[in-house]
Amino acid sequence: MIEEIPINEIPANPGDARKRKILIVEDEFVNREILIAMLEPEYEVIPAVSGEDAETVLLLRPGEISLVLLDLNLPDRHGLDILRELKEDMRTSKIPVIVLTSDRDSEVECLNQGAIDFIPKPYPVPKVVQARVRRIIELSEDRDLIRDTERDHLTGLYTREYFYRYAAQYDAFNPDVPTDALVLDVNHFQMINERFGKQYADGVLIRIGQAIVSSVGKSGGIACRRSADTFLIYCPHISDYQSFLNGIVSAACGADKGRIRIRLGVCSEHDKSVEMQTRFDRAKIAADTIRGSFTDLIAFYDNVMHEKEVYAEHLLDEFQAAVDGKQFSVYFQPKYDIRPVKPVLCGAEALVRWIHPNLGFISPGVFIPLFEDNGMIRILDRYVWRETVMQIAEWKKKFGCIVPVSVNVSRVDMLDPDLVDTLCSLVRENGLEFSDLHLEITESAYTENAQQIISTVNRLRESGFIIEMDDFGAGYSSLNMLSTLPVDVLKLDMMFIRNIFSENGNPRMLKVIFEIADTLSVPMVAEGVDTAEQLAALREMGCQMVQGYYFSPPRPANEFENHIREWLHIAEPATV
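and the corresponding structure tokens:
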């Protein structure tokens, strides 16, 4: 017989920490001692004689109790009430409870309230009790292990892997229920993290998770946190998505109304023969169409998006064949030095064009973002670099002069540890100088992985390559940043030029930019120059170089040669 210790005097961590702890809530002395004798060799047994004593133990030992053996007839309250309270409290809801009773009529109600098993009175032989207790604890620990694996630690929602499993299971049991696949994204979540701190940002995610469960849980819907700020929801069809989103946003903001903006992509009542993950990919496509919008916060996947998706998949499938078959052509748009009275050719930009044998001309605005998203841009960039240096070498041999050409280097390329060696090898193999090949790196690339990008750019400049910052004016650089970045040439963004010269534009902004560039001794190229008026204004402001349709659109190499001939005053060959 063990010595009884007042509940409030039990130390926080008594006994052998390696033993599971069992709480026995039984007011009858003999019954309690019988159970203790059965279980004490294998477990640390904690006795309680009332509901109040049981609550005190659970408060002193949160998370330590592996099993509760609960008698239904206690002096201060009925065991069913205690069972109900245990299951409603998040701190104790996961603890398995075995009910001790001689009342067979109470079994169903106990099961409904969350009991996991029964031990009848009088008790079975010790081996039976020991086996049932051992099995229940093992099952509970396995369940908790699975729960820890399947749940996001922050929000308590499913992880992506388990979410897809349970979503497919929902379809299997509810084949005729119309369902929606939803993707919910928090706009500019990284900025929320940076401005208000991780604790605040985590609170936003937790509130979103709670609001989602509250909104769709009762209808059988499930949700997961797919990534830092993206949630997936699978639920019976919702008719009023505006109200649904308003509820989520309201919960996410808390007292900070208007601070959090959330966009929602919906793949509604979709064909269930389509793979589950594909349905959510389509909802994500819909959500991405309104990325950055301040007015449109809900987008539905439709036939137009589906056609675009099918077309994109077709292009991805055709990519390697297009590379192998040289369907990609490099076009060249001339750059002109406009400081002389008569502008003089000073270089070119290489631009890729895809002429498909069946689909015809495919816009770069379609295939380049697609290949960037799928990692294929590295292969295409290397194709363009190779074709470009070969063309520079051919013009050198044909005309006895060098036409410097700039090529685009994507953000993906800049993360390639072999980038410098690859470019150096291409230039050497074609007998060129490194300065013959200019490298265009977008302004935005300098703001992502900045230290690594700057380190790579410095190595390229040390090798002799000319570095041009492309799309300058798109809104990323600060003046302080600009003064420290390793660049040799600034290229003003085409849309920036066109906006400046539009009806509501302010050309004075350009003059300020040119003065800053002059102070930094960095020459500038203005892209998108289409008219004589734009050319004259840029020249007056001090711009050195321009490119645009005023001089020429991008041309195939054989047509671009006319610009070289004009520059060298060579007449075109006579036609036969």
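(Above: one complete record from the training split.) Residues 126-150 form the longest helix (25 residues).
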